[in-house]
Amino acid sequence: MSTSSQAEPQTVRVTLLLAGGHQHTLSLPSNSPVLVAVMKAVAAQTGSDRNTIPPSQLFQIPLDGDKRALCFPSHQLVGVVTEPPIYVQSKQTQMAAAAPNAPTPAVNDPTIPSRFVHLDNFFSKEECDRLLQYVMERESEFTSTTTSTGQADYRHSTVLYHFSEFSEMTIERVKGLMPKVLPALDRPVFVPQEIEAQLTAHNEGNYFKLHNDNGSPDTATRELTYVYYFHNYPKNFTGGELLIYDSKIRNGYYTKAESFQTIEPRHNSIVFFLSRYMHEVLPVRCPSQKFADSRFTINGWVRRS
Ligand SMILES: O=C(O)CCC(=O)C(=O)O
Ligand SMILES: [Fe+2]
Question: Can you give the residue ranges of the Fe2OG dioxygenase domain (predicted)?
Answer without folding.
Answer: 188-304
